[in-house]
Fold:
Amino acid sequence: MNNFWLTLPTEIFFGKGQLSVLGKELQKRGAKCVLLAYGHSSIKKNGIYDKVTAILNDAGIKFVELSGIDPNPRITSVAKGAALCRENNVDFIIAAGAGSVIDCCKAIAAARYYKGDPWDFFIRKASVTKALPICAILTLAATGSEMNGGCVLSNEATTEKLPMGSYKLKPRFSILDPEFTFTLPKYQTAAGIADITSHVFEQYFSNPDVPITDRLCEGVLKTIIECAPIVLEEPENYDARANIMWASTIALNSILGLGKEEDWATHMIEHEVSAQYDITHGVGLAILTPNWMKNVLSEETKAKFATYGRNVWNITGTDDMDISLKAIEKTAGFFKSLGIPTRLSELGIDDSRFEVMADSALKYHGIGGLKRLSKVDIIEILRNSL
Amino acid sequence: MNNFWLTLPTEIFFGKGQLSVLGKELQKRGAKCVLLAYGHSSIKKNGIYDKVTAILNDAGIKFVELSGIDPNPRITSVAKGAALCRENNVDFIIAAGAGSVIDCCKAIAAARYYKGDPWDFFIRKASVTKALPICAILTLAATGSEMNGGCVLSNEATTEKLPMGSYKLKPRFSILDPEFTFTLPKYQTAAGIADITSHVFEQYFSNPDVPITDRLCEGVLKTIIECAPIVLEEPENYDARANIMWASTIALNSILGLGKEEDWATHMIEHEVSAQYDITHGVGLAILTPNWMKNVLSEETKAKFATYGRNVWNITGTDDMDISLKAIEKTAGFFKSLGIPTRLSELGIDDSRFEVMADSALKYHGIGGLKRLSKVDIIEILRNSL
Structure:
C-alpha cells in the first residue's frame, strides 16, 4: 500500500431541497460578488437559475453571469470568465451545471490570479498558486468534479483536450440534489453512468492491490450495476438517482485510489478522441474501456481481472483467464445495456486520425499504470473500438 | 436515502515515515505551544515520544505534557488537561496514542473554552461552541477517532460512560503510520479489529437500505475479514497493518453511514458494561454483537441480514432466515477467531448489575435504530452474552 496524503475540504449538502443552504453558506464565507456560471439553457428550463438568482438577491449578494459553457468546455470560456472575475471583483464562483461547468470554473478560479495564458496550467507551464473559492450545484451525476480538484479543458486552436488539477481547486461546498437530475435526457444519464464506471476502473485496475481500496471500488461498481437500469427506466426514481449521484462523487473524490498508482490510460485516449471529434466523454469511455481491458489483459494482470469478475459479477470458476474474459464481456454488455453507442464508427469516426491521436496522447507523458501503453497499443485499442 | 451534510476537514498523512510532516504542519497552522497528550508508557517504549519531542524542539514549538490517559479515558483527565491548556496558553493539542487518548483530547479541546463541568457536554447540558485544534498521531487501529468528531468518556463518580461529538472536534490533521502498530500486543490488535467491525455493523444494519453506502460497508467488512488473520499471525506485515488501519478510519469517518439512520445499540450497551467493569471496549462489542443480532433478527429485518450473509460471507441459498442465522454464526466465529473472550463470564461479569445497566442505557434516550430496544431486550442480550 503506497503512502498517501488526503484532503477533502469540500462540504457536501446532499438531498432534496438542499439548495436552500446556498445563501447562508455564501454569506458565512463572506461572498460579496459571485460569478454565476452555467452551460446552455437547461438550468433556465428546470428552474434552478430562477431559484439561485432569487437566493442571491435575498442574501444581498451581487452576481455576474457566464453562460454558454460547452459540454467539452473550452479554454476560451476560461479567459472570458477570468476577465469577468477581475472586472467585477468577484470573490466566489457558483458552478451550476454538470462536470463541464464545474471544470471550466476551476480553470477560471485559477486563471483569475494568473497573468499568462490559462492554457499554461494544462501544458504544465504554470501551476496553481491561488484560486477563487467555488461552490458547485450539480445537475448531472458523472465527473465527480463536485468534490475533487481536477478539470479537463479543450483547446480548439491546438486540437488538444488536457487535464490539470490542484487541491486548491476543490470546491468549498457542493449542493447535490438528486431531483435536479430527474429531467435529464436518457442519453446524458447513460453517458454519465459510463463516466462514473470508468473512473472506478481507472483506479481499481492498477497496482498495488490494496484490499480496503479495492473492495470499496467493487462496492461502487456493484451499486452502479444495480441502480443504472432503474434510473434509465424510471428517471424520477429518487433513491436510484440519489445512489447514482453519490456514487459519482465517491468514484472520484480520491477515496477509491488511496494507496494505489491508478491508471487513467482510457481517459487519456478518450480525451484525444474528444479533442478531434467533440464526442460525449462518457460515450467515448464506454466504447474504449472493454478494448483497453482486452489490450492489457495478460498472464501478469489476469489475477486482477479475475478478482473483478468474481467480486463484482459473481463469476465462479478456477481459471483466472477464463473468468477475466467473461468479466470483460460482462463489462461490454453493461455499457451496451445503457443504450449508448458501442463503436466509434457509430459516431462517424474512422481510422484516419488514429496516428495523430496516438502521438498526441503520448506528447506530454507516458500513459497507463497497469500497463504502460505504446503507440501500437493505443492504435490497437482505437482500431478494436471502430 | 436520507439527506445528509458531510464535512471531512481532517487531512490525513498515511504511511511509513509520515511523522516527518508534524513540525511543518504545526508551524503552518501557527502552533506556538502544544499540549502533548498520551497514555501510559507505550509511546515512550516504541520511540514515538522521543521523535515527537525532537520534532517539536527542532520546530521551536513549546509543549506541556499530559500523560496517564486510561484506555477507558476519565473525565478527571479532561479537567486536568483543560487546566494545563489554560495555564500555558496552549494553542494546539497533539493526541499521541489510541482512540482513548484522542477522545480525551477532544473533550479537553472543548473544555478549554467552557467554564462549567466538562461532564456537562456528555449529559447534554452544554454543547461545543469553540475548541482547540487537534492533531492525532495514531498508534492503534480501532476507534476511527482520528477522523471524526466523536468521543466517549467515563465518569467514575457517576459510574457512567457517555459519548458526545461535534464537527468542531474533528482533528485538523492526523498521522497514520501502520508501523506504529507493529509492536501492539495481540490482544489489543484483536480488540481493535472487533471495534472496527462493530462500527461498520452499527451503520450497515440500519434503515433505509442505501446501496452505495451498504456496498461500501460490505467492502470494509470483507477487508477486515481478509486482513485480520494476517495481522494476528504476522504483526509486522506492513500491508495487512496498513489495510486494517485505513479500514478503521473509513469505518467511522461518516462515509459508511451516509443516507442511513444508523443503529448504535450495541455500543450503548457496551458502554454500560465498561462503565461498571472497565473492560476493553472492543472485547465487549465482540461478545455483545452476535447476541444483539439474534435479538433484532425478525421477519422484518431478515432481508438485511441475508444480504449481509450473501455479500460478505458468500452464503448461498434462497431462505433469508436461514442465511441470516448462518451469517450470525459466521460473525460469532469471526470474533472467536480473533482469540479474545466470547462470553462476559470470562471477564468475571455476572448478571448482578444487568438491571442497573439496562436502566442506565435508557436513561438519556432510547437506543437502537434497526429495532428500538426495550429494557427486556437489553437484559436478554446481556444474559445471552454471559
